[in-house]
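May I ask you to review the protein record following this short note?
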Amino acid sequence: MVGAIAVWARAELGKYCSCSVLAGSPHHARIGKALNTSDVDFPAPIAEVVGVTLDVNNLDLEKAFWGAALGVNVQTEVEGWAVFELPNGGTMDLQQVPEKKVAKNRFHYDMRIRSGHDGIQRLQDLGASIIEHITKEVREWYVMADPEGNEFCAILQNTHFPGDDGN
């Protein structure tokens, strides 16, 4: 699960960073053109993602859900803030905010569910809801929402994307 988050984040952020996998890709060309560079002189990364923060209203509820879903405990907590250190070295932070979620998230987590449909049921038992079930050729995933409605994709173990080893 956590590895899938890292793979997705690297792929998404790689659109804006130097990466040999992206050389010659449409994203690389688009960003290179915007920066007036070529594939040869694409600039070095400006930044590195070390963590992702999710705004929440009920910090205790979301800590319980995400801790169980990711299989990790909160490592650091201060008033209104909790940090999960992920096995890949990054962090997932929860930040308590007063405003309610009012629209679809523009950013979401992609998580590989290693226990298949049983894992989907476990997420539901923790308070997640299914928004949509998608099956396409060799791809199967669920668009889900955590207890406060923050969307994420739950990708089943048997789903393979281009360049994905399936783990």
The longest helix spans residues 2-14. Confidence is low (pLDDT under 50) at residues 1-28. DSSP finds four helices and eight strands in the chain. The two ends are 9 Å apart (CA to CA).
